[in-house]
Design brief:
There is one protein chain. The protein has 9 helices and 19 strands. The protein is α+β, with helices and mostly antiparallel strands and 344 residues long. The protein has 2 domains: 11-33 and 159-343, Naphthalene 1,2-dioxygenase Alpha Subunit, Chain A, domain 1 (Alpha-Beta Complex), CATH 3.90.380; 38-150, Rieske [2Fe-2S] iron-sulphur domain (Rieske Iron-sulfur Protein), CATH 2.102.10.10.
């Protein structure tokens, strides 16, 4: 167990203003989300040339595409004519990348191929108006993007998630379903909640009944928070929950996993995309998987009211910050330290 050492000093949470101040949110966009590797989607969504995944994230529209040579590329989802988005959010097949606004057309390498009805201008050259590229890399069947000009290698950015996920056969799991949740709170309110188990007895009674809460451990290290608890009969999870800075989660079931992306929609709203994957995708197994997914989604929904109530109190002007539990909130302390460093 990760019980605190004797005479440990208290750590305190972030100031309440950090959960609603638009200036703090903009600083996070530039200093955190623009510099980190963000989980975009699954490689199985990019099997063939022309397959695309488009997402909206913290004010940016992004997409990845399998090009004609079989490589995965990624771009800002912005037409170079008037800035319109080229793709709608989601995964689809595109034989050509054509902006619906004025018909500008790009190839899978992002080069402008046609600007119909544009007219003649002596200093207009299509090669100057390709799509804005961004860095893209893959890890164990998942696609990540980074908006920084010179990002660290993906494996370095993933931190200890790589080591903690090593025992699990992630490549053997196949997509079964996606669930999307939206809450009226800052992304950090929800993340604070995710990276600690302190709230489980009060907010998740069914979850608490199938774990040994007295042996629940939380540790933050190398850009990752690792939460573990022994499981009892009837448990759904394998007993390990992972969070990777700044906005990705990965948890395992017997024979499966879920992976999620926590998406800031502004200072006061957050959306979470959950993908569920399993090794056995036979018709006989799908009903069992649906029960696992429903159970997980019910646990997530139990957090809605407490997170939205916390957000309201962060903005009320009374509360500023509180002490963090040395035993149960090391994950909160650790990721708050990463944020403070990024925004310094």
């Amino acid at each position: 167990m990760n019980l605190p050492a004797a005479n440990v000093s208290l750590a305190f949470g972030l100031p309440a203003s950090w959960y609603h101040d638009p200036q703090i949110y903009e600083r996070e966009r530039q200093a955190v989300f623009r510099r980190e590797w963000i989980w975009l989607g699954r490689e199985d969504q990019l099997r063939d040339p022309g397959d695309t995944i488009a997402i909206e994230f913290a004010g940016w529209r992004l997409f990845a595409i399998r090009d004609r040579d079989g490589n995965v590329r990624a771009f800002h989802n912005i037409c170079r004519h008037r800035g319109a988005p080229i793709l709608k959010e989601g995964a689809r097949r595109c034989d050509v990348l054509r902006c619906a606004y004025h018909g500008w057309t790009y190839d899978t390498a992002g080069r402008l191929r046609a600007a119909p009805h544009f007219g003649s201008a002596v200093d207009f050259d299509k090669k100057d108006y390709g799509l804005f590229p961004i860095s893209v890399a893959t890890w164990r069947g998942f696609v990540f993007v980074n908006l920084a000009e010179d990002p660290v290698p993906l494996l370095e950015g993933l931190g200890d998630l790589v080591r903690e996920a090593a025992p699990y056969p992630l490549e053997d799991y196949r997509f079964v379903g996606e669930e999307v949740f939206e809450m009226g709170c800052n992304w950090k309110v929800y993340t604070d909640n995710y990276v600690e188990g302190y709230h489980i007895p009060g907010i998740h009674p069914a979850f608490n009944a199938v774990i040994d809460f007295e042996k629940f451990t939380t540790e933050g290290r190398n850009r990752t928070v690792i939460m573990q608890a022994p499981q009892k009969d009837g448990a759904v999870y394998s007993g390990t929950w992972l969070w990777r800075y700044p906005n990705m989660t990965l948890s395992t079931f017997p024979g499966g996993m879920n992976i999620s992306r926590i998406v800031p929609l502004g200072p006061r709203r957050v959306r979470q995309y959950y993908n569920f994957l399993f090794a056995d995708t036979s018709p006989e197994a799908l009903a069992r998987h649906r029960r696992t997914m429903d159970w997980t989604c019910n646990v997530i929904r139990e957090d809605f009211a407490i997170c939205e109530g916390t957000q309201a109190n962060m903005e009320a002007g009374i509360f500023d910050r509180g002490p963090l539990s040395p035993r149960h909130e090391d994950g909160v302390r650790y990721y708050h330290a990463l944020l403070r460093e990024a925004l310094a």
